[in-house]
Amino acid sequence: MRRTLLIAALLLALPWLAATQGQAQTAPAAPGRNPISAEELELQSALRGGVVDGRVSIPNPQAAVLIQPEGRDWRAFHNVTLAWVGGIAVLGMLGVLVLYHLVHGTTRIAGGRSGSTILRFPTIERANHWMVATSFVVLALSGLNLTFGRHVLLPLLGPEAFAALSQWGKYAHNFLAFPFTLGIVVMLLLWVKDNLPTWVDWEWLKAGGGLFGGAHPPAERFNAGQKLMFWITVLGGGVVAATGFLLLFPFAATDIAGMQLSHMLHSILAVLMIAVILGHIYIGTLGVEGAWDAMSTGEVDVNWALQHHRLWAEAQLARERAEAAAAPGAVHAGAAD
Amino acid sequence: MARMKFLCDSDRCIECNACVTACKNEHEVPWGINRRRVVTINDGRPGERSISMACMHCTDAPCAAVCPVSCFYTTADAIVLHDKDLCIGCGYCFYACPFGAPQYPRVGNFGSRGKMDKCTFCAGGPQQDNTRAEYIQYGSNRIAEGKLPLCAEMCSTKALLAGDGEIIATIYRERVQRRGYGSGAWGWRTAYRETVSI
Ligand code: SF4
Ligand code: SF4
């Protein structure tokens, strides 16, 4: 009984409650206090990380944003965070590589070159690799120039020459985005099947890839380090490309906040990738004797293959032997034509 | 030397766009570029305000801080200007600017930007004052002629004030005291890290 009374009382009170709330919402501001204060709006939007925007009568919807305080955060990112992260990553990696080379030196082919070779990368794979590699180098240098150029090159070249160089860098950066992206996609299609993680990778990683002495752990066509390299290139490169295209077509798909975010992702990932690729370049040239052949002629020495990619090399050699055994017939058939 | 500033008294602005038109005409600003614009907030609702906005010539200007080719410079009157011969049109100043002031002509392929263009406080650029070369790149240089920006001169309600920060703040303060209300100096906190105390 008591409960029903209470409910009835509440029901009766509802309209009154609603009325007072409505009043509170539409109540005019206290006299003498302006309802809109530029000062407060700016402060609020700065704290909330939002923008002050409205309507414009010119045909440029972006102009309707009156104040976007996030510009300050982007400035801090570009001038401080990115400069430090990029500087440490790139210079740090260079330092580590120089140190490693001084201490460890080139990893020689165990037992020297055998004189016979096997095919590691066919022409299409090499061509694609070099398309990605050359565009990456130009993209990386022109990108680094945007962050570090004014501190490093500007004092050396003077404003005119430096601006001209940066202008060409910008054009190159814009255009090479296309072959780079294409190459990343082709790379994914060509190599994904050899880059799926397996148990062999676990053993390889536990042995440190033979990087710090000890026996060379067995590996398939790509060892765990190369697989990591592959996924960093494909996934990192994919995100860098996607965010890059958002920046290349301003306001096509996103607003100013989206472009700031795109730039942050793009540049941070890019400097980290540059550091990783420096390591990749070192291993492919000075670091490991015989590795360069894989990407230049595509033919690697059999001893090198057995040392670094034993499982793959053995399978490859077994197949060659099987083909050779079947060869007489093939030669006959060929000669008959 | 004066510290030049803009102040828009939004309780006076009637969104007539005279400032926008004056600016476009004075400097022959190309199609698609607006150095000044009028933004109406709370359009059609209580508390509607129109604010005329252009480059505020910030203290410690964010655009100058991020420019990869360092092409900005600040005049003795604290007007923030840039050198179009050096600008590479990267768009960084636009990301950093809190007021969306930098504008870009669309040139060439994709969204490729041309040389950045923005309000010069009617002070031209690094070229020789009031030369043809300066006019083509930056528009007229009224400051060198001893005049103030045309947008503010043209303002039909005198909502837009341009000139020495101290003097325009005093004018605004007197107005607010006389009429008893004022919504404040738009963008001042962000641009100059200070506001007009009434
Ligand atoms: S309003 Fe924008 S363009 Fe003007 S000085 Fe400030 S940051 Fe630079
Ligand atoms: S668009 Fe021009 S002025 Fe703006 S940051 Fe880039 S180079 Fe500097």
Q: In what order do the strands lie side by side in the largest sheet of chain A?
A: 1-2
Radius of gyration of chain A: 31 Å
> Outline of chain A, from the CA principal axes?
elongated
Can you tell me the CATH topology of chain B?
Answer: Alpha-Beta Plaits
Which blocks of ≥5 consecutive residues of chain A have pLDDT under 50? 10-33, 331-337
Strand content of chain B: 5-15%
Domain 4Fe-4S ferredoxin-type (chain B): 4-34, 78-107
Keywords (chain B): 4Fe-4S, Iron, Iron-sulfur, Metal-binding
Pfam family, one (chain B): Fer4_6
Protein name (chain B): Formate dehydrogenase FDH3 subunit beta
Descriptors:
heterodimer; A: 337 residues; mainly alpha; Fumarate Reductase Cytochrome B subunit; two-stranded antiparallel ribbon; 12 helices; 72% helix; 3% strand; elongated; disordered C terminus; B: 198 residues; alpha+beta; Alpha-Beta Plaits; two-stranded antiparallel sheet; 7 helices; 6 strands; binds iron/sulfur cluster
Topology:
The complex is a heterodimer of chains A (337) and B (198).
Chain A: H1 2-26, H2 38-48, E1 52-53, E2 65-67, H3 70-104, E3 117-119, H4 123-152, H5 154-157, H6 159-191, H7 199-206, H8 224-248, H9 256-287, H10 291-296, E4 299-301, H11 302-308, H12 310-336
Antiparallel strand pairs in A: 1-2, 3-4
Helix pairs in contact in A: 3-9, 4-6, 6-8, 8-9, 11-12
Chain B: E1 4-8, H1 18-27, E2 37-41, E3 49-53, H2 62-66, E4 72-74, E5 80-82, H3 92-96, H4 132-138, H5 150-154, E6 160-164, H6 165-179, H7 188-192
Antiparallel strand pairs in B: 1-6, 2-3, 4-5
Pfam families (chain B): Fer4_6
Protein name (chain B): Formate dehydrogenase FDH3 subunit beta
Domain 4Fe-4S ferredoxin-type (chain B): 4-34, 78-107
